Amino acid sequence: MRYRVQRTYELTGRGPAALGWLEDGEIPFSASTLQVEGTATVVRIRSREMHSSSTEDGELLGIFLHPEDADLVTAGTVLVGPTD
Description:
Distance between the termini: 13 Å
Order of helices and strands: EEEEEE
Number of strands: 6
Oligomer: single chain
Structural class: mainly beta
Strand content: over 45%
Shape: globular
Radius of gyration: 11 Å
Strand order of the largest sheet: 1-2-5-4-3-6
């Protein structure tokens, strides 16, 4: 699984989120953590949202991040996993 973050933002009432491209594989609905590529840094995710866009870059996917882990993810971050 490989997810490249395009941007991060705060969604009122839902918390921190990331929007990016699922370049390879899939994030299982049971996944609760992902890992920052090339590091041992684990990022907790609260939920995911599929979007209807699919391009040569991959499937557009939004994920909601655990508030304490939101600062670990910025535009350009690549998440892999899941770790659980």
